[in-house]
Inverse folding.
């Protein structure tokens, strides 16, 4: 199988992984009160100890393109989550040029399969229950706010700590006193009638909004996009997302919140399928005429620990496994017939690659969101510093330093991410010199905030 075929296969499997993961994520288990796992790496870097998380990333550099995808799911057990991730890379010519099994730009087929424990995932019945109450109160406030905006200068002054019942009463009184003026030429349900309908639907349930009552109101407003957009079936907002909109109401209703300090620990098996064209060396003399392909599965065992507090995340990874250093060159085969000479050249390695056992390590420091944009901005920036190190047991080492900078929507953080990542690489054995490259990446990264 050629490298380009491997890459296309990986891309297809990546799509299947994400589609399967998102489909499973939309199905909630009855009675499931565990909070979801969070804190995955926004760039889905395979050497990052922050974890890969459900989603997919497409990354493009001057040397080629890579695609990665992962699915992470939780369990009710001491080992409470598992994840499966795939990544494929090819260079811009579709050629098999393996620089290093740890190199982000190395063509090949990579996987990472692991299990672990996350403090994010925990049965929090009080937080789940009170959080649900708060979400329904916030939903009611969202609908009432839409009505209140139609009143213009006569809008009611609803206090930040007002619950659903208080907000419905205040806006309802303002609506009776100064109903909005409608343009009857528009046809359909006018603003005044629609506002009265919403207030009349919320009035009887405002004191204690229950799930079935919320569903009934949403069903009655399916044809009214201005109101239905806030219904859970249309747009689900987490407790912490709505906390930004109603912080005072949150503090009054929600209890049993998770600690600001969280951690994750997990172990994984990371196989790498590499392939490269090479020319055999016999008796010290390269045989340039015969083309060979080297295909090998490299195995590595890894352990990761990640710590989270507020805007900061820090993780370390250590492992032991196999790596390979491959240096390709332009190999030409000359065919001579009389005075005519034909030359056929290809990129290949002289001599068969030799895998080596190696110790690996990496660390990541992340800050998200960066305090550079004010509240209410559409996007939030984040930054990481990722350092990785590979030391073969035979001597020498290779290192990589990456500083990804990324942006994600503020309303629903990390559901979509894009950014730029400068990368510095240097090797000592074999010494291939320092390398600098820049990667552009974009991807879907659902539910990975902390």
């Amino acid at each position: 199988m050629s490298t380009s075929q491997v890459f296309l296969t990986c891309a297809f499997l990546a799509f299947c992984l994400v589609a399967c993961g998102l489909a499973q994520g939309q199905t909630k288990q009855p009675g499931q009160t565990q909070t979801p796992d969070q804190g995955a790496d926004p760039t889905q870097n395979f050497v990052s100890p922050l974890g890969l998380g459900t989603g997919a990333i497409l990354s493009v550099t001057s040397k080629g393109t890579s695609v990665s995808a992962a699915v992470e799911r939780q369990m009710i057990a001491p080992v409470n989550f598992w994840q499966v991730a795939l990544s494929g890379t090819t260079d811009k010519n579709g050629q098999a040029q393996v620089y290093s099994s740890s190199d982000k730009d190395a063509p090949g087929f990579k996987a990472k399969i692991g299990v672990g424990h996350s403090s994010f995932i925990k049965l929090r019945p009080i937080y789940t229950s009170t959080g649900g109450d708060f979400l329904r109160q916030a939903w009611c406030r969202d609908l009432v706010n839409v009505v209140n905006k139609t009143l213009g200068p006569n809008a009611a002054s609803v206090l930040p700590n007002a619950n659903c019942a208080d907000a419905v009463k205040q806006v309802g009184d303002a609506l009776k006193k100064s109903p909005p003026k409608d343009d009857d030429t528009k046809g359909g349900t006018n603003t005044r009638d629609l506002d009265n309908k919403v207030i009349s639907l919320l009035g009887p349930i405002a004191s204690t909004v229950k799930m079935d009552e919320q569903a009934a109101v949403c069903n009655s407003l399916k044809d009214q996009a201005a109101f239905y957009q806030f219904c859970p079936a249309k747009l689900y907002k987490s407790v912490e997302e709505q906390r930004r909109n109603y912080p005072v109401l949150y503090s009054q209703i929600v209890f049993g919140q998770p600690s600001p300090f969280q951690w994750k620990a997990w172990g994984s098996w990371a196989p790498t399928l590499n392939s490269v064209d090479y020319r055999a060396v016999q008796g010290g003399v390269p045989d340039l005429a015969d083309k060979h392909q080297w295909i090998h599965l490299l195995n590595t065992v890894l352990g990761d620990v990640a710590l989270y507090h507020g805007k900061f995340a820090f993780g370390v990874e250590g492992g032991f496994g196999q790596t390979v250093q491959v240096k390709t060159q332009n190999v030409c085969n000359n065919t001579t017939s009389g005075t005519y000479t034909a030359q056929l050249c290809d990129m290949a390695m002289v001599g068969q690659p030799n895998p080596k056992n190696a110790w690996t390590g990496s660390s990541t420091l992340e800050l998200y969101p960066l305090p550079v944009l004010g509240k209410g901005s559409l996007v939030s920036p984040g930054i990481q510093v990722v350092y990785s190190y590979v030391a073969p047991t035979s001597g020498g080492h290779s290192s990589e330093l990456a500083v990804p900078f990324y942006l994600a929507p503020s309303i629903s953080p990390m559901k979509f991410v894009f950014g730029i990542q400068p990368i510095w690489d240097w090797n000592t054995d074999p010494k291939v010199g320092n390398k600098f490259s820049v990667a552009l990446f974009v991807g879907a990264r659902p539910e990975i905030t902390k």
Observations:
- The radius of gyration is 28 Å.
- Residues 125-253 form one domain.
- DSSP finds eight helices and 19 strands in the chain.
